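Hello, quick one for you while I still have it in my head. No rush at all, and the record is pasted right below.
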Amino acid sequence: MIKYETFYVGPMDACSYLVYDDGGEEAVVIDAGGGYSTVSKCAHALNKKICAVLLTHGHFDHTLGAAEYQRAGIPVGISTADEHMLAVHRDNLARMFGLPYTPISADFTFRGGDVLTYGKLSFKVILTPGHTIGSCCFLCDNVCFSGDTLFCESVGRTDFPTGSHAELISSIKKKLLSLPDETTVCPGHNEQTTIAHERLFNPYLV
């Protein structure tokens, strides 16, 4: 069964997750808004090797630290549809918020339905457009890393470039609410929740 550590990183306190399995040596980072030093020290203390960074989408608060992971030799992946945001581009919102941004190129890309495997860790890519055109969630065992698609009793903003509220709600209802009730949801900001809780109490999904 997987385990994960949660770090609140970068200017927007975005969640960055270090995901690992006690029975393996590999670890994967979900989203990289910053915190490379802290996350890598945690991985070292756990005797795990970070094999990849998986980005849920291309906004700066989830990608600002990606360049530092790459400099350490750790490959960074993002959905094909959001790949362009890793450059200095209006869609990643860094310029809008007046923040410096180091452009990078993805080491690999993925699409909905792909399965990414690192040792004992296996992540199913669930394409959930709406927050951005290429937003993805990653399902690993009974944990869904939902980025800025689904939050505890809320959903992601859709007023940024490539956003669509109709697509977001459709993505959640068709692709996430079909997951088992007991699935833990680890979002891109704030506290975790479950599919059962969101089905019952999320006012955007009625």
